[in-house]
Amino acid sequence: MAEKMNAKASPAIILFGEYFNEVGGPIVAFPAPEYVEAKVEKKKELEDVEIDNQLTKEKYKKSEGKDKLESKIIDEIFASELDVPKKGYKLTISGNVTTKTPGYESCVCVAVAKAVNQLSITTWKTDDAFNAAMKASKFISDDKIHLATAAYDSFVQIDDSKDPKPRPFHPGKALFFVLANTEKLVDKHASSDSLKNWVTDVKKIVSKSKNEMKYAGVVELGKLMNQNHSLLAENKLANKDTDQIIKISNYEGALGAKITGYEGKVLILCEGDKQQDKVLASLQGKGYGAVKIKAN
Q: Is 130 found in the same domain as 39?
């Protein structure tokens, strides 16, 4: 049995399908650069499990904090696992996210599950981390796409958010993005009935996008991002700031751009790192927060 183990888990950046997944459409995402890390250290002298969440600034013993998220996750996933110790270790949660980061709870769930399991004699297979995390998903308010990217650490597609069965995949080559932030939530005005009218279009976009990513068709991928954004804008899910970010990005020759997620962010596809730098400088020059992302 290992004395010390650690695991990391990253939330999702949505490439295609936000909002439409709520009415039966598919969703595609990849891991963000941010992460939650869970470290487990075996301490034989402990008659409990010590939990130190450095992100929430909480320290407690598991037996005294049964209503805490970490305790619930451990109990739900490992209560019936005989080879997982029920005491005698310290769990430390850290990372470069905040508790307000979308997907935070999902990342805690997956990181804790992966780290604690590594103290056992059982080696998880590819799907086991996600299936284990799903057991504790009733304690988590995040969209399930965050559980998927956290568990698989890859691009994932989910076709049915109500019964998520992620399909992990990897693009044929690295993709260069800029992620810009308006720091303004996108007001949701579209009705479910309106969104349903476009689900077939989103399914076609997702199907084509996976083929373009497989064969490194970044120009066509950018066009598909633009198409997805047009559907979002048609449903009044854009605002002046997201429109301005896309206008700036297009001026700098970006291959495609669209709203990503629900927090007023825009994902911009670039041909390479030089174009990334140009788009980044222009956006920051206009006062928008932006970061470069290389996804592979």
A: yes
Question: In sequence order, what are the residues at sequence separation of 6 or more whose Cβ sits closer than 8 angstroms to the Cβ of residue 196?
Answer: 23, 24
Please report, for residues 85, 230, 272, the alpha-carbon distance to residue 275 in angstroms, rounded to integers and kept in the order given: 51, 23, 6
Q: What range defines the domain where residue 26 resides?
A: 4-169
CA angle 141, 266, 211 (to 5 degrees): 90
Q: What is the pLDDT of residues 142-189, one digit of tens each?
A: 889 999 999 999 999 999 888 889 999 999 999 999 999 987 666 556
CB-CB neighbours of 215 under 10 Å: 12
9 and 68 co-located in one domain:
yes
- CA dist 231 and 233 (Å) reads 5
User: Which residue is it, tokens 């109990």?
Assistant: 75
Cβ-contact 60, 138 below 8 angstroms: no
**Residue 243: both structure tokens together:** 């429109």
Q: How far apart are CA 236 and CA 190, in angstroms?
A: 6
Question: From the CB of residue 263, how many other CB atoms can be counted at a distance below 10 Å?
Answer: 15
The count of structural domains within the chain is 2
User: Of the residues 150, 169, 188, which one is the last residue of a structural domain?
Assistant: 169
Write the CATH number for 64.
Answer: 3.30.230.10
The answer to whether 155 touches 168, Cβ cutoff 8 Å, is yes
Final residue before a domain boundary, out of 132, 147, 169: 169
Position 13, amino acid: I
Phi-psi category of residue 11: left, alpha or beta, with phi > 0 → left and psi -120 to 50 → alpha: beta
Q: Which residue has the higher pLDDT, 3 or 253?
A: 253
Q: Cα angle at 27 between 232 and 77, to 5 degrees?
A: 135
